Amino acid sequence: MRVLVTGADGFVGRHACNALRAAGDEVVEVHGPRGEGISSTALHFDIADEARVKAAVSDVKPEAVLHLAGFSSVAKSHQNPARVFAVNTMGVVHLLTALRESAPKARVLVVGSGEVYGPVAEGTLATESHPHVPLSPYSASKSAAELAGEQFFRSYGMAVILARPFNHLGAGQDPTFVVPSFAAQIRAIALGTVDPILRTGNLDAVRDFSHVKDVVDAYRLLLTQGEPGQAYNVCSGEGRTIRGLLEEMLRLSGVQARIELDPARLRPSDIPSLVGSAEKLRALGWFPKLSVADALRDVLGPKVGGAPSH
Fold first, then answer.
1. How confident is the model at residue 41, as a pLDDT?
2. Which letter, b or e, does each residue of 62-100 get, where b requires 16 or more Cβ atoms within 10 Å of its Cβ?
3. 29 and which of 8, 34, 140, 296 could share a cystine (Cβ 3.0–4.6 Å)?
4. Start and end of every NAD(P)-binding domain (predicted)?
5. Pairing mode, if any, of strands 167-169 and 231-234?
6. CATH superfamily entry for domain 2-168+209-234
Protein backbone atom coordinates (compact mmCIF):
# COMPACT_ATOMS: atom_id res chain seq x y z
CA MET A 1 0.00 0.00 0.00
CA ARG A 2 1.05 3.62 -0.56
CA VAL A 3 1.64 5.11 2.88
CA LEU A 4 2.13 8.78 3.65
CA VAL A 5 4.27 9.08 6.80
CA THR A 6 4.30 12.46 8.49
CA GLY A 7 7.15 13.13 10.89
CA ALA A 8 9.25 10.67 8.91
CA ASP A 9 12.45 12.47 9.89
CA GLY A 10 11.80 11.98 13.61
CA PHE A 11 12.95 9.27 16.01
CA VAL A 12 9.97 6.95 15.46
CA GLY A 13 9.47 8.05 11.86
CA ARG A 14 12.85 6.76 10.71
CA HIS A 15 12.21 3.36 12.26
CA ALA A 16 8.65 3.29 10.90
CA CYS A 17 9.70 4.03 7.32
CA ASN A 18 12.26 1.22 7.45
CA ALA A 19 9.64 -1.21 8.77
CA LEU A 20 7.02 -0.22 6.21
CA ARG A 21 9.44 -0.60 3.31
CA ALA A 22 10.59 -3.97 4.66
CA ALA A 23 6.93 -5.04 4.57
CA GLY A 24 6.72 -4.07 0.89
CA ASP A 25 4.87 -0.77 1.25
CA GLU A 26 5.47 2.30 -0.91
CA VAL A 27 6.42 5.07 1.50
CA VAL A 28 6.09 8.80 0.90
CA GLU A 29 7.97 10.67 3.61
CA VAL A 30 6.98 14.03 5.03
CA HIS A 31 9.79 15.82 6.85
CA GLY A 32 9.46 18.94 8.97
CA PRO A 33 10.70 22.26 7.59
CA ARG A 34 13.98 21.99 9.53
CA GLY A 35 14.89 18.87 7.54
CA GLU A 36 14.65 20.58 4.15
CA GLY A 37 17.59 19.73 1.94
CA ILE A 38 18.48 16.52 3.80
CA SER A 39 16.36 14.29 1.52
CA SER A 40 15.63 15.10 -2.10
CA THR A 41 12.74 12.60 -2.27
CA ALA A 42 10.83 13.65 0.86
CA LEU A 43 8.18 16.32 1.10
CA HIS A 44 9.02 19.16 3.50
CA PHE A 45 6.46 21.27 5.34
CA ASP A 46 5.09 22.24 8.73
CA ILE A 47 2.04 20.12 9.63
CA ALA A 48 0.47 23.29 11.05
CA ASP A 49 0.51 24.84 7.54
CA GLU A 50 -2.98 24.01 6.27
CA ALA A 51 -2.32 24.92 2.62
CA ARG A 52 0.84 22.81 2.40
CA VAL A 53 -0.87 19.83 4.01
CA LYS A 54 -3.78 20.08 1.57
CA ALA A 55 -1.47 20.31 -1.46
CA ALA A 56 0.62 17.32 -0.37
CA VAL A 57 -2.35 15.05 0.25
CA SER A 58 -3.93 16.07 -3.04
CA ASP A 59 -0.71 15.20 -4.88
CA VAL A 60 0.05 11.89 -3.13
CA LYS A 61 -3.50 10.54 -2.67
CA PRO A 62 -2.30 7.95 -0.15
CA GLU A 63 -4.00 4.65 0.60
CA ALA A 64 -2.89 4.93 4.21
CA VAL A 65 -1.42 7.58 6.49
CA LEU A 66 0.81 7.12 9.52
CA HIS A 67 0.60 10.45 11.32
CA LEU A 68 3.65 10.87 13.54
CA ALA A 69 4.41 14.57 13.06
CA GLY A 70 4.01 16.51 16.26
CA PHE A 71 5.46 18.41 19.18
CA SER A 72 6.87 15.52 21.22
CA SER A 73 8.35 16.95 24.42
CA VAL A 74 6.10 16.89 27.47
CA ALA A 75 8.54 19.05 29.45
CA LYS A 76 8.96 21.71 26.74
CA SER A 77 5.23 21.84 26.02
CA HIS A 78 4.73 23.98 29.13
CA GLN A 79 6.85 26.72 27.53
CA ASN A 80 4.74 27.24 24.39
CA PRO A 81 1.23 25.76 24.66
CA ALA A 82 -0.09 27.64 21.63
CA ARG A 83 2.51 26.07 19.35
CA VAL A 84 1.84 22.64 20.85
CA PHE A 85 -1.88 22.84 20.05
CA ALA A 86 -1.20 24.31 16.59
CA VAL A 87 0.97 21.29 15.72
CA ASN A 88 -0.55 18.41 17.66
CA THR A 89 -4.25 19.26 17.42
CA MET A 90 -4.70 21.51 14.41
CA GLY A 91 -2.17 19.45 12.48
CA VAL A 92 -4.55 16.49 12.78
CA VAL A 93 -7.51 18.64 11.75
CA HIS A 94 -5.63 19.93 8.68
CA LEU A 95 -4.58 16.40 7.71
CA LEU A 96 -8.02 14.83 8.07
CA THR A 97 -9.70 17.73 6.24
CA ALA A 98 -7.27 17.29 3.34
CA LEU A 99 -7.82 13.53 3.28
CA ARG A 100 -11.58 13.95 3.30
CA GLU A 101 -11.26 16.05 0.15
CA SER A 102 -8.60 14.09 -1.77
CA ALA A 103 -8.31 10.56 -0.31
CA PRO A 104 -11.45 9.84 1.74
CA LYS A 105 -10.96 6.06 1.72
CA ALA A 106 -7.44 6.19 3.16
CA ARG A 107 -6.84 4.42 6.45
CA VAL A 108 -5.36 6.88 8.95
CA LEU A 109 -3.46 6.06 12.12
CA VAL A 110 -3.37 9.12 14.37
CA VAL A 111 -0.58 8.58 16.90
CA GLY A 112 -1.45 10.09 20.25
CA SER A 113 0.00 9.25 23.65
CA GLY A 114 -0.64 7.27 26.80
CA GLU A 115 0.05 10.56 28.61
CA VAL A 116 -3.61 11.47 28.02
CA TYR A 117 -4.57 9.19 30.94
CA GLY A 118 -2.66 11.23 33.49
CA PRO A 119 -1.92 9.61 36.87
CA VAL A 120 -2.93 5.97 37.21
CA ALA A 121 -2.88 4.23 40.57
CA GLU A 122 0.28 2.18 41.03
CA GLY A 123 -0.45 -1.45 40.28
CA THR A 124 -3.33 -0.48 37.95
CA LEU A 125 -3.13 -0.78 34.16
CA ALA A 126 -4.78 1.94 32.08
CA THR A 127 -7.15 0.46 29.53
CA GLU A 128 -8.51 2.34 26.54
CA SER A 129 -11.66 3.18 28.51
CA HIS A 130 -9.69 4.94 31.25
CA PRO A 131 -10.67 8.65 31.49
CA HIS A 132 -8.39 11.33 30.08
CA VAL A 133 -6.76 13.47 32.77
CA PRO A 134 -4.11 15.51 30.88
CA LEU A 135 -1.53 17.32 33.02
CA SER A 136 0.46 19.11 30.32
CA PRO A 137 -0.18 21.07 27.12
CA TYR A 138 1.31 18.07 25.31
CA SER A 139 -1.18 15.55 26.70
CA ALA A 140 -4.10 17.98 26.40
CA SER A 141 -3.28 18.61 22.74
CA LYS A 142 -3.10 14.86 22.07
CA SER A 143 -6.45 14.31 23.77
CA ALA A 144 -8.00 17.08 21.66
CA ALA A 145 -6.49 15.55 18.51
CA GLU A 146 -8.20 12.26 19.34
CA LEU A 147 -11.55 14.03 19.65
CA ALA A 148 -11.02 15.46 16.17
CA GLY A 149 -10.20 12.00 14.82
CA GLU A 150 -13.31 10.51 16.41
CA GLN A 151 -15.45 13.29 14.96
CA PHE A 152 -14.16 12.70 11.41
CA PHE A 153 -14.88 8.98 11.86
CA ARG A 154 -18.42 9.53 13.13
CA SER A 155 -19.43 12.41 10.88
CA TYR A 156 -17.79 11.39 7.60
CA GLY A 157 -17.13 7.66 7.95
CA MET A 158 -13.38 8.07 7.57
CA ALA A 159 -11.19 5.14 8.62
CA VAL A 160 -9.43 6.87 11.52
CA ILE A 161 -7.67 4.63 14.06
CA LEU A 162 -6.13 6.01 17.24
CA ALA A 163 -2.86 4.77 18.76
CA ARG A 164 -1.85 5.62 22.32
CA PRO A 165 1.82 4.71 22.66
CA PHE A 166 3.47 4.74 26.06
CA ASN A 167 7.22 5.37 26.45
CA HIS A 168 9.44 3.81 23.82
CA LEU A 169 13.20 3.58 23.49
CA GLY A 170 15.82 2.89 20.83
CA ALA A 171 18.60 4.32 18.72
CA GLY A 172 18.20 7.87 17.45
CA GLN A 173 15.99 9.41 20.13
CA ASP A 174 16.58 13.09 20.91
CA PRO A 175 19.01 13.57 23.82
CA THR A 176 16.54 15.87 25.57
CA PHE A 177 14.55 12.77 26.56
CA VAL A 178 15.47 11.06 29.80
CA VAL A 179 17.09 7.80 28.66
CA PRO A 180 19.17 9.33 25.81
CA SER A 181 20.24 12.02 28.29
CA PHE A 182 21.46 9.33 30.67
CA ALA A 183 23.21 7.57 27.78
CA ALA A 184 25.05 10.72 26.70
CA GLN A 185 26.26 11.29 30.27
CA ILE A 186 27.32 7.65 30.65
CA ARG A 187 29.28 7.73 27.38
CA ALA A 188 31.07 10.90 28.47
CA ILE A 189 31.95 9.34 31.84
CA ALA A 190 33.18 6.18 30.09
CA LEU A 191 35.45 8.30 27.90
CA GLY A 192 36.77 10.16 30.93
CA THR A 193 35.83 13.58 29.55
CA VAL A 194 33.64 14.50 32.55
CA ASP A 195 33.55 13.74 36.26
CA PRO A 196 31.65 10.54 37.19
CA ILE A 197 28.47 12.40 38.20
CA LEU A 198 25.07 11.67 36.64
CA ARG A 199 22.56 14.52 36.85
CA THR A 200 18.93 13.46 36.84
CA GLY A 201 15.37 14.55 37.39
CA ASN A 202 12.73 12.53 39.24
CA LEU A 203 13.88 8.90 39.40
CA ASP A 204 10.86 7.54 41.27
CA ALA A 205 8.32 7.87 38.45
CA VAL A 206 6.98 4.54 37.16
CA ARG A 207 6.57 4.22 33.39
CA ASP A 208 5.79 1.59 30.73
CA PHE A 209 8.66 1.15 28.25
CA SER A 210 8.82 -0.66 24.91
CA HIS A 211 11.41 -1.01 22.15
CA VAL A 212 10.70 1.41 19.31
CA LYS A 213 10.92 -1.44 16.76
CA ASP A 214 8.06 -3.25 18.49
CA VAL A 215 6.09 0.00 18.53
CA VAL A 216 6.38 0.56 14.78
CA ASP A 217 5.38 -3.05 14.16
CA ALA A 218 2.23 -2.27 16.14
CA TYR A 219 1.60 0.81 14.01
CA ARG A 220 1.65 -1.15 10.76
CA LEU A 221 -0.65 -3.78 12.25
CA LEU A 222 -3.10 -1.07 13.29
CA LEU A 223 -2.90 0.53 9.84
CA THR A 224 -3.98 -2.74 8.25
CA GLN A 225 -6.15 -4.40 10.91
CA GLY A 226 -7.15 -1.77 13.47
CA GLU A 227 -10.86 -1.00 13.72
CA PRO A 228 -11.74 2.54 12.61
CA GLY A 229 -13.03 4.71 15.43
CA GLN A 230 -11.18 2.68 18.04
CA ALA A 231 -8.18 3.52 20.22
CA TYR A 232 -5.37 1.08 21.02
CA ASN A 233 -2.72 1.28 23.71
CA VAL A 234 0.78 0.45 22.48
CA CYS A 235 2.70 -0.63 25.55
CA SER A 236 4.31 -3.48 27.47
CA GLY A 237 1.99 -3.67 30.47
CA GLU A 238 4.99 -3.59 32.80
CA GLY A 239 5.98 -0.69 35.03
CA ARG A 240 9.59 0.31 35.67
CA THR A 241 11.00 3.19 37.68
CA ILE A 242 13.33 5.62 35.96
CA ARG A 243 15.83 4.71 38.69
CA GLY A 244 15.64 1.06 37.64
CA LEU A 245 16.35 1.98 34.02
CA LEU A 246 19.34 4.08 35.04
CA GLU A 247 20.75 1.28 37.19
CA GLU A 248 20.36 -1.14 34.26
CA MET A 249 22.17 1.28 31.95
CA LEU A 250 25.05 1.61 34.41
CA ARG A 251 25.23 -2.18 34.68
CA LEU A 252 25.26 -2.65 30.90
CA SER A 253 27.95 0.01 30.47
CA GLY A 254 30.13 -0.97 33.42
CA VAL A 255 30.25 2.69 34.45
CA GLN A 256 30.21 3.78 38.08
CA ALA A 257 28.89 7.25 38.87
CA ARG A 258 27.41 9.34 41.64
CA ILE A 259 23.79 10.30 41.01
CA GLU A 260 22.76 13.90 41.72
CA LEU A 261 19.31 15.49 41.45
CA ASP A 262 19.25 18.45 39.07
CA PRO A 263 16.22 20.68 39.89
CA ALA A 264 16.30 22.05 36.33
CA ARG A 265 15.35 18.58 35.07
CA LEU A 266 12.14 18.40 37.11
CA ARG A 267 8.81 18.96 35.30
CA PRO A 268 6.19 21.51 36.38
CA SER A 269 3.78 18.58 36.78
CA ASP A 270 4.76 14.93 36.77
CA ILE A 271 2.82 11.67 36.78
CA PRO A 272 3.89 9.30 39.59
CA SER A 273 2.80 6.13 37.77
CA LEU A 274 1.57 5.39 34.23
CA VAL A 275 1.40 1.80 32.95
CA GLY A 276 -0.94 0.55 30.24
CA SER A 277 -2.81 -2.56 29.22
CA ALA A 278 -2.03 -3.85 25.71
CA GLU A 279 -4.70 -6.57 25.69
CA LYS A 280 -6.72 -4.89 22.94
CA LEU A 281 -3.66 -4.66 20.68
CA ARG A 282 -2.55 -8.20 21.53
CA ALA A 283 -5.95 -9.45 20.40
CA LEU A 284 -4.92 -8.39 16.88
CA GLY A 285 -1.82 -10.61 17.11
CA TRP A 286 0.82 -8.14 18.28
CA PHE A 287 3.42 -9.08 20.85
CA PRO A 288 6.80 -7.54 21.72
CA LYS A 289 9.83 -9.25 20.21
CA LEU A 290 12.55 -7.16 21.88
CA SER A 291 13.30 -6.35 25.51
CA VAL A 292 13.91 -3.09 27.34
CA ALA A 293 17.52 -4.24 27.80
CA ASP A 294 17.79 -4.50 23.99
CA ALA A 295 16.53 -0.94 23.71
CA LEU A 296 18.96 0.32 26.34
CA ARG A 297 21.88 -1.31 24.49
CA ASP A 298 20.76 0.44 21.30
CA VAL A 299 20.59 3.79 23.09
CA LEU A 300 24.00 3.37 24.71
CA GLY A 301 25.62 2.30 21.43
CA PRO A 302 27.88 -0.68 20.69
CA LYS A 303 31.00 0.82 22.29
CA VAL A 304 29.26 1.15 25.66
CA GLY A 305 26.13 -1.02 25.67
CA GLY A 306 27.28 -4.06 23.75
CA ALA A 307 25.77 -5.67 20.64
CA PRO A 308 22.73 -3.83 19.20
CA SER A 309 19.34 -5.51 18.80
CA HIS A 310 18.14 -6.70 15.41
1. 83
2. bbbbbbbbbbbebbbbeeeeeebbbbbbbbbbbbbbbbb
3. 8
4. 4-298
5. unpaired
6. NAD(P)-binding Rossmann-like Domain (3.40.50.720)
